[in-house]
UniProtKB/TrEMBL annotation:
One of its GO terms (molecular function) is carbonate dehydratase activity. Belongs to the alpha-carbonic anhydrase family. It comes from Kocuria turfanensis. InterPro entries: Alpha_CA_prokaryot-like, CA_dom, CA_dom_sf, Carbonic_anhydrase_a-class. The keyword Lyase applies. Pfam families: Carb_anhydrase (PF00194). It is an enzyme of class 4 (lyase). Keywords: Lyase, Metal-binding, Signal, Zinc. Residues 1-28 form the signal peptide. Residues 51-273 form the Alpha-carbonic anhydrase domain. This is carbonic anhydrase. Residues 251-274 are annotated as: Disordered.
Length: 274
């Protein structure tokens, strides 16, 4: 699908605060063993062979719920992510307060995506709750869609509160001009494939975000096994732009690593009251 323009419709899906489990790693394998994220992989006991899952065929999204007992929610859950954000909603009234500082990062290829982990604490606050950054990873093309339209890529900034609740900032990326702020991250993607990890030095996460933090909010899930629910999704309204070469670098490492959109079910579209 063609990427929509940057003046996409405003939307918010009422959400309850996230209460999340202990076995998550990252959105689409987009997290580390003890770092929660909406694309995650269940942890396994020492010596245990982890369940194999993928984005196609017999181990693809349609079959995730059959692969392991821990993955059942992928098939039975009623509040799954990603979703198609419906047209004509309103933006969340819960602002995102950033406390991101200059830091070094490690980029790691998980086999499903490349994720970026900070070497020093990074935080956000939403509705008075502080969440600590766990990792950032990507999907290409995007997982969330806006009124049926997808984007070239989507980045998930995964955060966790002291109570274990997850809040994920979703950033959509459209093809456009080359984005210098993202160059260090994009350059680390092939490097992370060649080595165990790659370093990204002197980066501030806020430089990767669009100027406006207006967002759509809803209660969803991890977008990879075990598909755990009660994840607080904060999908930014304004996309970023990446150049064609930058998008090609992402897709060269991992392409079509996006879970299809899931039914909205009884989740309402409503403004969040603080």
């Amino acid at each position: 699908m063609r990427s929509p323009s940057t003046d996409t419709r405003k939307t918010v899906i009422a959400s309850s605060s996230a209460v999340l489990l202990a076995m998550i790693t990252g959105c689409a394998d987009d997290a580390t063993p003890d770092a929660s994220s909406p694309d995650a992989t269940a942890q396994t006991a020492p010596g245990e062979v982890p369940a194999q899952w993928s984005y196609e065929g017999a181990t693809g999204p349609q079959h995730w719920g059959e692969l392991e007992d821990e993955f059942t929610t992928c098939s039975t859950g009623a509040a799954q992510s990603p979703i198609d954000v419906p047209s004509d909603p309103v933006l969340s009234s819960a602002p995102i307060e950033l406390d991101y500082t200059n830091s070094d990062f490690q980029a790691r290829d998980t086999g499903h995506t490349v994720e970026l982990e900070a070497t020093s604490p990074q935080n956000i606050t939403v509705d008075g709750t502080e969440y600590t950054f766990q990792q950032m990873h990507y999907h290409a093309p995007s997982e969330h869609t806006l009124d049926g339209a997808d984007y070239a890529a989507e980045f998930h900034f995964v955060h966790r509160s002291n109570d274990g609740d997850l809040a994920v900032i979703g950033v959509l990326a459209a093809e456009g001009e080359n984005n210098p702020a993202w160059s260090p991250v994009i350059e680390a993607v092939p490097a992370a494939q060649d080595e165990d990890s790659a370093e990204v030095t002197g980066l501030t996460l806020s430089s990767l975000l669009p100027e406006s933090l207006d967002h759509y909010e809803y209660d969803g899930s991890l977008t990879t096994p075990p598909c755990s629910e009660s994840v607080r999704w904060l999908l930014l309204q304004s996309p970023i732009e990446l150049g064609a070469t930058q998008i090609s670098e992402l897709r060269s490492a991992h392409s079509d690593n996006n879970r299809p959109t899931q039914p909205l079910n009884d989740r309402e579209v409503a403004q969040i009251d603080q």
